[in-house]
């Protein structure tokens, strides 16, 4: 097999009642348990805030809304993301592959795998709100993971960011609320407690708004690694259309050509890379394999001898 691209990732003042210190332990325990229960009721949600007349800067009104059923925030949020990328699906169709009964929820790995299965590139954003806003400006909603509980007792929840107000508040499709407006600081607190995970689903002809090609090509290489050579090919061509001298994209494109048995095209691209850098051993190795596949055995042997 040819060598592949590196698969590279808060007092508020409290009025204290003197009688509080004379509560019986049982009463204290009941209060604590009630507080915990209020935190752990399904995917609990922050309350919507008033906008004080703040105007909308960006809002993707066409993003569909799928009210979640209990513990089904993952499928509901992912369905909204995928449908916005022209995928025909519903939460009920996604749930069997996403929902983990023992965990009462969905892991990020399942979300990523599901995006790939629909011929889309799962692209994880850098942990910056500006990157979320950048994707909104590009017309793409952003899937986020929040922790609506405590660090020691988390309540994880998936939502989709669809807009931002000029005062910095964000607009979400979240749980049973179609248009949840949440203050920036409140969002940041819940997002940071969940690891600042955010993701978009990219078509093969789309590049991320942050223009981080190394990060993007790493995501594409994983598409290539699972055998989706056609999507990977489209992605590499999209990069080369705008950045024609990106050697990583050329190398990835050559690999997809080889995987699809287009050995002549693969050999052409590997040869181009060797001309640019004659010491590039991985290009020489893959070129030799391409030549052997074309029955040019002597040329393949002579090429390999130069690197032994």
Automatic annotation (TrEMBL):
Specify the domain of life of the species encoding this protein.
Bacteria
Among InterPro entries, the record links this protein to: TPR-like_helical_dom_sf (IPR011990)
What broad taxonomic lineage does this protein's source fall under?
Bacteria, Pseudomonadati, Thermodesulfobacteriota, Desulfobulbia, Desulfobulbales
Q: Which residues cross the membrane?
A: 21-40
For this UniProt record, give its keywords in alphabetical order, as a comma-separated list: Membrane, Transmembrane, Transmembrane helix
Q: What is this protein called?
A: Uncharacterized protein
């Amino acid at each position: 097999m040819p060598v592949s691209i590196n698969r590279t990732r808060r007092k508020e003042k409290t009025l204290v009642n003197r009688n509080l210190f004379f509560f019986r332990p049982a009463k204290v325990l009941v209060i604590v348990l009630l507080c915990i229960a209020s935190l752990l009721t399904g995917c609990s949600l922050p309350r919507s805030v008033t906008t004080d007349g703040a105007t909308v800067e960006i809002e993707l009104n066409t993003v569909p809304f799928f009210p979640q059923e209990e513990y089904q925030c993952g499928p509901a949020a992912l369905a909204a993301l995928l449908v916005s990328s022209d995928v025909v699906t519903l939460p009920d169709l996604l749930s069997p592959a996403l929902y983990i009964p023992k965990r009462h929820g969905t892991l990020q790995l399942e979300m990523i795998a599901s995006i790939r299965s629909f011929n889309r590139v799962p692209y994880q954003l850098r942990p910056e709100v500006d990157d979320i806003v950048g994707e909104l400006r590009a017309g793409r909603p952003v899937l986020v993971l929040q922790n609506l509980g405590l660090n020691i007792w988390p309540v994880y929840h998936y939502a989709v960011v669809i807009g931002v107000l000029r005062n910095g508040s964000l607009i979400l499709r979240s749980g049973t609320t179609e248009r949840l407006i949440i203050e920036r600081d409140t969002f940041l607190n819940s997002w940071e407690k969940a690891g600042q995970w955010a993701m978009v689903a990219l078509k093969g002809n789309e590049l991320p708004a942050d223009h981080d090609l190394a990060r993007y090509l790493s995501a594409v290489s994983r598409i290539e690694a699972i055998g989706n050579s056609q999507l990977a090919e489209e992605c590499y061509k999209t990069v080369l259309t705008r950045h024609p001298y990106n050697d990583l994209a050329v190398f990835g494109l050559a690999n997809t050509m080889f995987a699809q048995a287009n050995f002549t095209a693969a050999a052409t691209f590997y040869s181009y890379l060797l001309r640019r850098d004659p010491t590039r051993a991985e290009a020489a190795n893959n070129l030799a394999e391409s030549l052997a596949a074309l029955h040019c055995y002597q040329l393949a042997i002579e090429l390999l001898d130069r690197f032994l």
